[in-house]
Amino acid sequence: MDQSKIRNFSIIAHIDHGKSTLADRILEMTETVQHREMVDQILDSLDLERERGITIKLNAVQLKYKAKDGEEYVFHLIDTPGHVDFTYEVSRSLAACEGAVLVVDAAQGIEAQTLANVYLALDNDLEIVPVINKIDLPSAQPEVVKEEIENVIGLDCTEAPLISAKTGLNVQDVLEEVVKKIPAPAGDPQAPLKALVFDSVYDSYRGVIVFVRVKDGRIQVGDKIRFMNNQAEYEVLECGVRNPKEVKLDALECGEVGWFAASIKSVQDVSVGATVTKADNPANEALPGYRKMNPMVYCGLYPTDSAKYNDLRDALEKLKLNDASLQFEAETSQALGFGFRCGFLGLLHMDVVQERLEREYNLSLIATAPSVIYHCYLTDGSMVKIDNPAHLPEVQRIERLEEPYVTANIMVPNEYIGAVMELCQNKRGIYKDMHYIDANRNTLEYEIPLGEIVFDFFDKLKSCTKGYASLDYEISEYKKSDLVKMDILLNGELIDALSIIVHRDFAYTRGNSITVKLKELIPKQQFEIPVQAAVNGKIIARTNIKSLRKNVLAKCYGGDISRKKKLLEKQKEGKKRMKAVGSVEIPQEAFMAVLSMDDDK
Ligand SMILES: Nc1nc2c(ncn2[C@@H]2O[C@H](COP(=O)(O)OP(=O)(O)OP(=O)(O)O)[C@@H](O)[C@H]2O)c(=O)[nH]1
Q1: What is the ipTM of this complex?
Q2: According to a count of CB atoms within 10 Å of the terminal CB, is the N or C end of the chain lower?
Q3: Domain end residue (candidates: 481, 503, 519)
């Protein structure tokens, strides 16, 4: 293959600006996918992605495009997710490309993640091709948006295609721009093999399937390869590309993006960001890997059926292959038994992992409330990192507690600035700055505790701005805070998995709302159950769950057997996601009750 005819690129955009729709159109137009096979958002291969309408995992496809200059080009298109939780996946896919198509919604203009993604692309030295999408919308203002991109990002938009990914209008111009603007890969086909691992999945028959970008040299079936980070060696049994169906080839050439299988059964041997070389003619040094992403949010995951502990470990190991930012280690809870403390990039990531474990590995899980990592300085001068509130040392031993803050950039139309400032203040935010974007919008810069962001900040932000604000944040630093551990007691028994760390000023209101919430969520039992919130052994809030009087079946006197069955079925369903803790059955929702706490007094 002629290397000068290869183009490797990603599509980047703010969430919902139309990346996946554009990818669909491109696949259709290059006839990579036959029309009858076309389902919407074909690159979103996880069921979950299609249901939620968001892209979570990156996906790479090869497609062939006959350009107006009469030549045929080979494109490798890597789709990327848009949500702030998945920035890590974006930077991974960008490292495999020479260019990026930047999609901006003609009705919305630039948003927080448009900028964040552009900066990632610039960090990776990518050529950026701006594209204005959704010009079919009556509210589209393509000329205004073009000007905005030129002013705010400094990208020349004179030739930016004005498209509708939905109808296909002018999508071909995007492909022509890709050919013209994005450089061909620069690697040396004669040099020793260097391929960057950017993703992997586990296949039960063939072992780990490794996705690579060949930077130098080539990979051929039969080659003995070596992972440079851990020296593990394997023989390549199959290799190829996706279009998006798997296509087997004899070799992956220099500059190509594809996959190989080498009967790798030990999932620990493959890590994304690693460099693959040849065992008999190795490269001198590895490619620069990825910046390691540290999880921001932790929670405990426990099987509802304790016998499934090993299955859960297996599933987590396999999922980690495909999701490098997931972390986990074994932990035990007095209330929930054996499980794992897992680290995630954010709440959406946590949600997605939990759902994938349940669907793809058929597990039923209880997840505890998410927590950030606190730095706990002890009176003896040492510091411990606390990712599980239950493990906080006794108050007497604590000198001070620090919590992580983020620098949040919130892009907001002028009329909502007041509402957003109020929200940030309520969430203990510290005002930093305000940047002017255009006559209608500004960016507010705040420092906010991550612990507040992971709760319901995003939802609150959306609702107080009717969805017009957008948020991007990055971790800034740890700051001292007046934090306390709040314990929850059910029937007088401390439930370790329900403990949380809160700011002292919020303890009473949150204690109250959490006990009320638990009262709603925990089903009545044969006896009355007191629900109490305590700080340092002192009860600060209390409610009672009244004892059960009626039985569910009492309502259906004799006759209607199908209704009776239905009720019993429902009860069984509900049971699955419950965990008996001491004498009380606790449903999954109860562990998440802290997330829906309202601070409005
Ligand atoms: N009217 C109109 N709607 C569009 C166009 N392109 C995309 N949409 C719609 O915009 C919504 C978001 O599109 P997606 O392609 O899912 O957005 P995305 O950027 O891939 O979002 P994530 O994958 O979640 O990051 C969908 O409802 C699309 O149907 C367009 O050109 N015109």
Answers
A1: 0.97
A2: C
A3: 481
